[in-house]
Amino acid sequence: MRRVLLKGEPFSEPLPEGFLYHGLSVFTTLRVERGRPLWLEEHLFRLRRHALALGLPYPGDGVFLKDLEALAKEFAHLPCFRLRFTVGEGVWLSEARPYTPPPLAAYEEGVKVALTPYRVHPDLARFKTGNYLPYRLALKEAEGQGAFEGLLQDGEGYVVDGSRTSPLLYRDGALLLLEGGLEGITRRKVAEAARELGLRVERVRLYP
């Protein structure tokens, strides 16, 4: 028998141990603007692919579309909200919360970025898993330095990802995509738009 207390009270439906304690899950996060989820098909495709790659049973797109419909009604009064879908061992979660984009000045003037000592998992870096501790620690480190974003490295010291963004670099007329990090959907969409505008897009390994 297994019994779980949450804040001292019985938790009637304990979550799977791997999901609750060990980060054995995959998730995707997307924005919903005026009732329209951005790149929903791409997010569900990646979620399904990452779940199956890690041996997690995927419950089907339908359960998330149903959850999206219910959550969209609750948040219909907001111009924008953030949606997160998560898949674990025999369990899935859907969560919505209000979202406020960064101020316009962040886009026009840029933000401060800090290189952190934290490294991505050598086998899991490309998957968006619940094992997210290095990213949380990198963000905390960056914020402690007054920065908006913290950069993570791989085992060889190359910069591969951001704690809450998928970094892109623009240098000498080319848009540079960092090798080795999460398969970011927004980053891919930006790269596609850049190619349509005639910009050169390259994948690089970046040493700080």
From TrEMBL:
Q: Which SUPFAM superfamilies match?
A: D-aminoacid aminotransferase-like PLP-dependent enzymes
For biological process, the GO terms are:
carboxylic acid biosynthetic process
Provide this UniProt record's keywords sorted from A to Z.
Lyase
Any one Gene Ontology MF annotation carried by this entry is: lyase activity
Domain of life of the organism encoding this protein: Bacteria
Q: Pfam families in the record, alphabetically?
A: Aminotran_4
Q: Does the keyword Membrane apply?
A: no
Give the family, as the similarity comment puts it.
Belongs to the class-IV pyridoxal-phosphate-dependent aminotransferase family.
Task: Name the chain's protein.
Answer: 4-amino-4-deoxychorismate lyase
Organism field: Thermus scotoductus
